[in-house]
Amino acid sequence: xxxxxxxxxxxxxxxxxxxxxxxxxxQRVTIDSSPWALRGHGPRGPVLTDGDASAVGAxxxxxxxxxxxxPQWLPALPGPGDSWLSSLTDPRFAPRQARLLALFTxxxxxxxxxxxxxxxxxxxxxxLTIAEFDGQLWFAGERPTIVDVAAFAVAGLSNDYGVELDxxxxxxxxxxxxxAIGGFIPMPGVPQFY
Amino acid sequence: MMPVSLSGxxxxxxxxxxxxxxxxxxxxxGADGLARAWADLCPHRGMRLSFGFVRESQxxxxxxxxxxxxxPDSGSGSRSGSGPGGATEPRVRAARCLSVPAHPGMTPPGxxxxxxxxxxxxxxxxxxxxxxxxxxxxxxxGPEAGAQGAAGAGDGDDAVHAVxxxxxxxxxxxxxxxxxxxxxxxxxxVARAGELITFKGPDLRVIAAxxxxxxxxxxxxxxxxxxxxxxxxSLCLWAALVRDHLAAVAVP
Lengths: 194, 252
Hints:
Radius of gyration of chain A: 16 Å
CATH architecture of the largest domain in chain A: Up-down Bundle
Largest interface: A-B, 18 and 26 residues
Strand order of the largest sheet of chain B: 5-6-7-9-10
Largest sheet of chain B: 5 strands, antiparallel
Structural class of chain B: alpha+beta
Helix content of chain A: 40-55%
Shape of chain B: elongated
Low-confidence stretches of chain B: 76-83, 146-150, 152-157
Number of helices of chain B: 3
Largest sheet of chain A: 4 strands, mixed
Structural class of chain A: alpha+beta
Number of helices of chain A: 8
Oligomer: heterodimer
Shape of chain A: globular
Mean pLDDT of chain A: 92
Distance between the termini of chain B: 32 Å
Low-confidence stretches of chain A: none
Number of domains of chain A: 2
């Protein structure tokens, strides 16, 4: 299995994270993915090649890995799970745009984008707040799934564009739960110690 | 004192930043279940301690690993209360640096202290003093409230259950006004005491505690005497509606 990615690429992070959570062996090939993603054309990482199959983008790679190696990581609640997964891995999702522009441009995010990103984090907190009352501690069921993996790559990097999670208690509780899963790995911007 | 979080918002081993009257404060809970609140500033290089991490009952700065905890003689081993998150009286635990990883054999200098603020847990919330001498809880949140029932409920039901916290991009008077005009369905206001607003319905009370963050934003920490999950979920939606309404009118 070969993963084309970049250390600083938040799109590839969920794929590395799931590979680590599942203890799967793979080779990494570093590509210059972030500048490409910024320009909005060309190959967009990550690209996962697994024998005869290949997956482009985080959502496809997460689905491929869980379907082939760990079906228990597929969303138990496909409705909200699929909808969260497509939002969280959409390049236009405000938190992901805000991070990319904050880290890789001199101008930074345009006015309003960071505020919009904070509102999307607030949506995640609202969802988890209500879910906790139903005993649902994860985004798509009673177990962590690939939706949580994708969500961590969003919520765990909010400091990159200057948003803290102080106002989002349910999201903070979920982050602590997620970080406690065996095989968890950080990326640059995600503190090693928490 | 100022409410800064529901008790469950800061679990054992967790830390968060907040703001008390415009001052950045780190709120954290040790493995011993005790909540602490300190100025959010490492005395070494000024890093925010709320970026750090809790191990056992120390908070470590993420920058150079200086670890801080209660003064050894501040009596952290004894506590009044009833387990993690249970009610505790207002008190200040002086805090200082306990270890510097670059100099493992060294006794940390006595001037390496952090400014500790009074902390209490009451009504299922963490309260922090606005200064070292502020240990005043709203009357209805004080220790006598526990004996009489939540916030003057006085009807034998002294347990409160978490609803949620909401933070709004509006100052605290606007949040207070919005909560008081958009009542929880089927309730009326029966008491106002300092930061507290108490709403009463046929068989439940809802208590909102307003946190003035001092930076043009405010938070409401909400609990209820109703243990029912469905009822609490609907109160969550009410709180989110109030928040979203305020956010909509706050946008220039």
